[in-house]
Specification:
It is a single chain. The chain is built from 16 helices and three strands. By secondary structure, it is mainly alpha-helical. It has a domain of about 100 residues: Cytochrome P450-Terp, domain 2 (Cytochrome p450-Terp, domain 2). It has a three-stranded antiparallel β-sheet with strand order 1-2-3. A hairpin with a 4-residue loop joins strand 1 and strand 2.
Length: about 375
Amino acid sequence: MEIKEKSLEYAPGLEGVVACRTRICQIDGQAGKLYYAGYPIEDLAQNSTFEEVCFLLWNQRLPRHDELENLEKIFRENRSLPQEVIAFLELAPHTAHPMDALRTIASLLSCFDINLEKSPEANLQRAIFLTARFPTIVATFHRLRQNQKPVLPHPSLGFAANFLYMLFGKEPTPNQAKVMDAALILHADHEMNASTFASLVTASTLSDIYSAVASGIGALKGPLHGGANEAVLKMLMEIADPANVESYVDQALTKKVKIMGFGHRIYKNYDPRARIFKEYARRLSERTKFSRFFKINEKLEEVMQAKKGQHGIFPNVDLYSGIVYHQLGIPADLFTPIFAIARVSGWTAHILEYWQENRLFRPNALYEGPAPRAYVSMGQR
């Protein structure tokens, strides 16, 4: 019996496929522009705060003064973790990758949600609580694995400053807090990226928001997505000196090895987030002993521009974000968890939006196997 397949067009990696409609984020890949609900990322990074951007993503408008104060208050009041969760983190192997700990705890938090209501308002509250607790999860796990006592959330510091406070046990300088705040804004959302899509696939089954967010964390962990900035730092350590850049690039291109921090599925121009991170990296490198990494990156840009710029391969957000975190004293394996601390706001915003007109994701597959055939018994094989 012949099965007639309707004509299907295969799009590897779903490239060019429109999966949903959104009012949250827009990317102009040709021009190298990024907008959150219509606001340019450059304006938000310079003038806004992460708390304000969270409100913007969840509501598609900037908050009034009283609305922002209220959200900041809710964040401060919900940063702490249940004691049972802290006990679990104490028992977890401290050799685990922090992303594994974050994914596990994000799922575990659902067990402590006794609210049975599934309304949009209840789910928005869950989104706020998850966003508030992500920094505490990451900082607590990091300190425990170093045999240090966790630092309780600060009662008055802002979102970014409080994370650095819990991580290092001392209040950051205003400059350090501003850099971290801008970094969170830059990573808060990026339209239909792999982790957001993973979150929406889970959410489309009408599963809970914790499961959807856990799916996003799992997708973000990969080195082709959130783990890329960690890989960039390893690459810079391997290159070691700006004088080695050209030979490194030539060898990598000859062997067809991906050079981390360059190229993007959407951007065919300079990633606007990379420009902003580059400027912060420049400023920080002038004050720290890690200026060598910045000089390597500048040389990398120069060489890659000459060799691959005509093909639309430019620096992406990962090229300079890892340097910024490194110069703040943050270990490399926390780079991706910081990405998640920011991106949970975007994941939850898209989940809440998608649930307004939910439709189960169920794509087709293009079958290329054998034609229908009769079963062959064991003795005849």
